[in-house]
């Protein structure tokens, strides 16, 4: 094949391309990519060998050949490489967004040594990194101003350029040093202006450092040294800014040649001499340099060929700047509208249309609708369709407005089976239509069974074939070709090969989520018989038991008999059968086998009589680690913490510790402390009270504090009356 190229303006390519197509005698099927197009992005400063992305092609069912990958086109500089085995695309050479911001690779997959292959398109966006600082045309500049210039007067216009794009190329201007606060700079336009008069200053020269900083992260910047000299104005004072007198709107035909005059920008300035001389400059809107503006005459001309279908409106910000010192300026936004020229050929959405129509149908049967588009605007884009003369064309009619092709007569397949018709919009584009008259389809495909029942393990790998359906059709040709599809929703779990009828899994199965799938498969030629498929998912032990709580708390009174229930813990396992049956056991913390657990119900109980006083370990919480394990293979398990507090019972009497004989002087005054009695109780934290067992004698002479056990003299003592007292406490 010889292929030529022609652009929208009608210019042909300098050379043609020779394409050789080899028809291979092979039944091998290629490895098909999962996507027809991949999109990746990578920063331009990514180091060599950095990962860009991965493409994957799937081999045909039953194939044991290995898939290999290679980059076939789109990378003449060799900036990328691909792992031939795994399809991993990496950076091979340094990237530069400013040189190439978008790369389109064609990647091929080959199955073993097979001569057939498949292709996919890989679009790689090279993301801009802020690696270029703003740059001034010069490192320093000078300007002269008058003593009488008023505040707000523009003194100088600083302009820097940044090769980066987006925010990385957006520039903000500022004064890095402005000790006198005499000047300011517009952060967007870079216009340096006076903030006050310099008449009272005796300073004849100002040194300004103007910084241009981009918006990258981190931002980059550069400096311009501006020397401002103050002189006395003796003649005309530049006290008038230019004012535009030309229209802000102009038009140009899209087929205008390079250098075509589009508009004349004009401004006036009433000042005299150089103060009234005006120059014109494009500040923004001409980033693609589509126009040139003569700074002396103000003539705006085309610098490149225009294309309305690419861009139909341009907004140019133009500045008129006088030659005074300091210079004064005015800004106008000029809108350039690009007018349409009928320079675009209509293009059919398809160059070849193929369809079929049944024989013996009444005239007026819709055969096909063709469609073409024209990128021009207005009347230039209105299309009319017609059939070009050819064999059998009189048997069809074309709707000139809609592009619908209908039959003009009843067709007979035995007379003519295939028609080749050329259709055309009214200007210059053609498309070829192949129309086949079909035989009547009087047989439906038949499945071997009406209903299929199968069981599948839930851990089968994605892509596993679980059932091969087959339907036969007695018709010939297209009427006998059977394609398979799934009629019902399988929730994304299964797919069917439309050619072979093989049903495969498309994702991992989970019996606990869905244990059965019922759907219908369709074998179709032109009719659609159905068969039912029921897939039962067999359980695999892929879920561990799960406790309702990660930790439990319980308490039990001391002295309880063995086998007293304390607490029941519960774990669930969503698997089925033995995989979901749970057994409980105590892993650790059960010293002296004090507790036991029902392996089936998870009930914790005492195994011995508990005594809070005799076993020191029970004075605090007992911490048991309990396990719940299923009966699957392999067994899965989970653990939880159970904290059990042995609660004290008041089963021990206090024991008094007598101080023995105590002497006290007979002249001791009432309130005198004789002694203090102590007592202990084996129970935990008891509240003890003290009192005399016989108050008939002791209660007259002595008293005891019921809380502290302190014995004191209550009345005066007399040795001659009683020398010894026995107190029962």
From TrEMBL:
SUPFAM superfamilies named in the record: Cadherin-like
Name of the protein in its database record: PCD23 protein
GO CC annotations, alphabetized: plasma membrane
Keyword Thylakoid set for record: no
Keyword Repeat applies: yes
Record keywords, A-Z: Calcium, Cell adhesion, Glycoprotein, Membrane, Repeat, Transmembrane, Transmembrane helix
Compartment(s) of residence: Membrane
GO biological process, one term: homophilic cell adhesion via plasma membrane adhesion molecules
Pfam families for the chain: Cadherin
GO molecular function: calcium ion binding
Highest taxon above the source species: Eukaryota
Residues of the Cadherin domain: 34-136, 137-244, 252-348, 349-447, 448-547, 548-656, 656-729
Principal location: membrane
